[in-house]
Amino acid sequence: MAVPYKLLRTTGSLANKSTLKVVLDEYGTVGIATLAKLIDKATTMTKADLVGALEALKTEMVNQLMDGNRVHLPGLGYFSLSVKGELYEDPRSHKFRLRNAYVRTVNFRPDKQLLKELSYARFENRTYSSETCTMPTDEEIAAALAHLFAESPLILVGDLQSALHISRPMAYRLSRRLESDGKLRNVGSRYRKMFVKGER
C-alpha cells in the first residue's frame, strides 16, 4: 500500500508562496473494530482485551492531562493540552490571567521511533488519476444534497464524499464552503460535524 496524495492549486494567502500544495487523498478512517481485528490476528490479545486496555488508557490519560501533566506513550509520542481563553488584566493587581479558559485541542509530538518507522512509507501521486480531481458542479452538489436530505435530516462529511465520489479532503473543503454559504448548518461539534439543511 502507498499513501495517496494530490497536488492542488493554492488559494488565498498561500497562493503567493507556492502554486501547488500537497493534500493527502485519504482512503478513510480506520476505527477500533478494524484495529482490534488485525491485532487479534497478530498477537495473543483478544478484541475485548484491546478495547478494555484502550478505555483504561484513555481514562488515565484524561486524568493526567487534566492534572497538567504531559503524557508519553513510548514508541508513539507525547500528548499535552493546548489551552485557550480570554486574556484578562485584574484592575487592582494588574496581573494577567485567563478568563473562560477551555481546552482548545490536544497536542501530539511523535517519538523519533515512530517517525523512523514511517520513513519507509511509499507515496502515490493521484493528481492525474481517473478519479474526479475537480470540485463537482453546483448542479451536482444540489442534487446530492437533495438526495441525502431526502433519506435523512442529518448528514456527515462522509455522506458528501460518497454521494459525489470525491476525496475526503475535498469533501471537507466542500462542507466548509456549503456551511459558509448557509446551505448547511453544523449541529455537531467543531471536530465531529453533523449537518442539517441551512437556511439558503
Automatic annotation (TrEMBL):
Residue ranges occupied by any HU domain in the UniProt entry: 1-124
Single Gene Ontology MF annotation: DNA binding
SUPFAM superfamilies: IHF-like DNA-binding proteins
Residue ranges of coiled coil: none
Keywords recorded for this protein, A-Z: DNA-binding
Tagged with keyword Disulfide bond: no
Descriptive protein name: HU domain-containing protein
